[in-house]
Amino acid sequence: MAGVAEAGGQPQAGQPPVGRKARQLLTEGARLHEAARTVLADHARALEAVRTALAPLQAELVAQELESIPVARLKDVTEGRLRLGAVETAGLGSVRAVYEASRYELRQIPGVGAQTADQALAAARQIARAVEETVSVRLDVDRPEPRTTALVVALRKLVEAGPELRRAVDAAQRLDERLGALLPEARPTAGWLRMAFTRRHRRQSAFAAVVGIRELTADAATRDIRLLLAQASTDLLREPASDIEAWVDFELRSTEYYSQLAEISEHRADVEAAEGFLPSEVAERVHGQSLDDTHRRVSLRGYQSFGARFALAQRRVVLGDEMGLGKTVQAIAVLAHLAGEGHSHFLVVCPASVLINWTREIRSRSTLRALPVHGADRQDAYAEWRERGGVAITTYDVLHTLPTPKGNGRSKTNGNGRSKANGTKPKTSGDPAPGMLVVDEAHYVKNPDTRRSKAVAAWTDHCDRVLFLTGTPMENRVEEFRTLVRYLQPALVPTIDHGTAVAGPHAFRASVAPAYLRRNQRDVLTELPALLQVDEWEEFSAADQEAYRKAVEAGNFMAMRRAAYADAERSAKLQRLRELVSEAAENGLKVVVFSYFRDVLATVQEALGTPVRKDRARRVFGPISGAVPAAHRQRLVDEFAAADGHAVLLCQIEAGGVGLNLQAASVVVLCEPQVKPTLEHQAVARAHRMGQVRTVQVHRLLAPDSVDDRLLRILRNKDRLFDTYARRSDMAEASPDAVDVSDGRLARRIVEEEQRRLAAQG
């Protein structure tokens, strides 16, 4: 009975438990295993409910696409081997007609044999599978119908459970896999007698299994996994929401709904586009980077997860995603990951207009402590951050007043202790550098000679990890992009030259890939509602023409641009603006009005002060301008978003086009064209961004035979180059006249041309 002697006495200290203690441990493990399996089952039912509601909507979209594909395309799939003459003669003109036919129905067509029928069906199904991967269901909050309502109700259960559900499901899957294997293996340890009659190798396996169960249950207790699983089950077993509740919640949190939908439908966007067309070696490095979500309170879209991992893997980069794709969320995900690795201090630098937005986003989307370092108490706040850690959020204007920390290997000097980046010796604090420096709207530092650029350069020299965020890394010249990269990876700068840019997109992408990632809305936000852009051409009234002629004679470019609003009572543009706003009011839509000029906005504000009807006053918020404090700007945006039904928000385009989220609006009015196309792109993207649930209408007010007309013609090539290159992570100066044109030169050119035109007219 050697086995009994071995296992029959009381276990020595440090040995695995046997008998009563083992039974208690096995019971505890079995309960934990059951809780994990319950969560997985509840989650599977919730997913199945969504898929069931999604299937008919997706099938209809696929059918519509197949209807538009001529049946002759089936030959392409079979490399021309398929004979379709008889099929077409029978009236089956689209791929849909073949796809929905049965093998028997096809064989009834004269001249179609069994082989042809089988080949045609196989080809149609192959095309249908390809189409299914590209179609995306859009939920129209203005036109709910039973099928979309069922989908929204099913999705709400998952959305309501929040990002903690993903953690619970991941934990449940790990526990189910581990405990499912360990519990049967450890069963002999429940009794001394059973262990006595168990073979030696089996006893060793049982002991190892019970040790594994003990470790799992102890870890679950330490991390409150039981509570996490219990909460997930409670959330998943809640009664379904009413139709109205679900639609209201969708309108408030459409981003979360679409994130769940994209994950469940396994819709595969263009992978290359979602990964910014990075070379394979860089993409593979990013794929190998993990992403800790312990301190994150928000789920990430696939492209957002890739962006965060890109910043971590490459350490010092520019994230240049088009506006509306969630650059802030990706940055927060990076900070949360680094916090999970033990980093305690982070610094965000941003324009004053978005400081409040950053503070709110960090607090709501992570467990990290956000501390604004701004205003009269900024030094006290900075001292508190140095002592307690968290995410310090400061502005460009304040950054230069803060002592830079001691370096950590990134700082480079020119031999006399002076920073190579800015030629001055920065004041250092002796404190460790932040775990990461985030610079928002980084195009603000494209001029290296400004004070804010020098301050950013000093901090980037002392930080190992730096993330620049900008939706407009290049406005006019490649040199601006070279400046941003010079802060981060100076060794790359020689590769970013005019020759590389002119060589085309692929050459440029390869040269900047280690430091630059950009994705576009149309490539990764397939569910984003349509953007309808309309140029509203309005002939000058007599008053407009008189004001315009005077501005041209005076050579005043800015007066020419706003001459159409000089006489509010007789302004053609203002009349059209009133009509657009009145139409929006009748449909309960919110409107954002952008202008470069404060006096134009004041005129618009006065013109819109008249009620739409005597019994309903129009609510006009703003104007938001550079003179409005950041806190007040955000308050105006919040009040505008919270207003019931129709409202109007007035924004100076340089102030409202940066950092403010205006997706409550579905109508955008641009009072005049802008000298820089990026200003318009930025402004429109504030409304047409992730979270928008309605089609966005953009109306640009223009006057023919005027500065508007002239400006658009001159900038058309410039805008096209921006679209062709900047929107695809590329830069070019192939057309200096179109790209490298300063505002001053452009203004002089237009003034001179208009003076000649009007003089010729007498």
Mean pLDDT: 83
Q: Strand portion, in percent?
A: 5-15%
Residue share in helix: 40-55%
- Strand order in the sheet with the most strands: 3-4-2-5-6-1-7
- Uncertain segments of ≥5 residues (pLDDT<50)? 1-13, 411-426, 611-616, 719-741
Give a quick account of the main beta sheet: strands, pairing sense, barrel closure.
7 strands, parallel
- Which structural category fits the helices and strands? alpha/beta
Report how far apart the termini are.
121 Å
Coarse morphology: globular
Number of folding domains?
Answer: 3
Strand tally is 13
Output the number of helix runs.
36
Rounded to the nearest angstrom, the radius of gyration is 32 Å
Detailed description of the structure:
With 762 residues, this protein is an alpha/beta fold. It has 3 domains: 1-268, no CATH class; 271-406 and 425-523, Rossmann fold, CATH 3.40.50; 528-761, Rossmann fold (3-Layer(aba) Sandwich), CATH 3.40.50.300. It is 54% helix and 9% strand. It has a 7-stranded parallel β-sheet, with helices on both faces. The protein has a 6-stranded parallel β-sheet with strand order 8-13-12-9-11-10, sandwiched between helices. It is globular and about 115 Å long. The relative contact order is 0.07. The model is unreliable at 1-13, 411-426, 611-616 and 719-741 (pLDDT under 50).
